């Protein structure tokens, strides 16, 4: 795994963690470490699979497609949350998670790219 791919994975995982921490604090639920980890787990699993897929296919890529990572993290994260972790997936939560993860996952990449050109 390249340094760029590792950075992308870590920053994306932090985006998920930030979403979960803000969400659990706003709703005053699962604010302990185990609660936060339980809420984040399905999204981290999905995120891990999205980042590992190109490596398993042995493609020479420096990084993964942001749209694929974002979409897969949200879609598979919601499915895992609902079917495996037996948690709710209200439409409002799906919308908020999709928008938040989109802004943060694309945002940090834009920030890094902008900083690299200046």
Précis, in short:
The chain has 118 residues and is an all-alpha fold. Helix content is 80%, strand content 0%.
Describe what this molecule looks like in 3D:
- With 118 residues, this protein is mainly α.
- The chain has one domain (3-117).
- The protein has 4 helices and no strands.
- It has helices at residues 3-27, 33-56, 66-83, 91-117.
- The chain is globular.
Distinct helical segment count: 4
Q: Stretches where pLDDT falls below 50 for ≥5 residues?
A: none
Structural class: mainly alpha
Element-by-element helix/strand order: HHHH
Radius of gyration: 15 Å
Assembly state of the chains shown: single chain
Kindly give the count of domains.
1
Helix content class: over 70%
Strand content: under 5%
- Major sheet size, sense and barrel closure: none
Strand and helix map with partners:
Elements: H1 3-27, H2 33-56, H3 66-83, H4 91-117
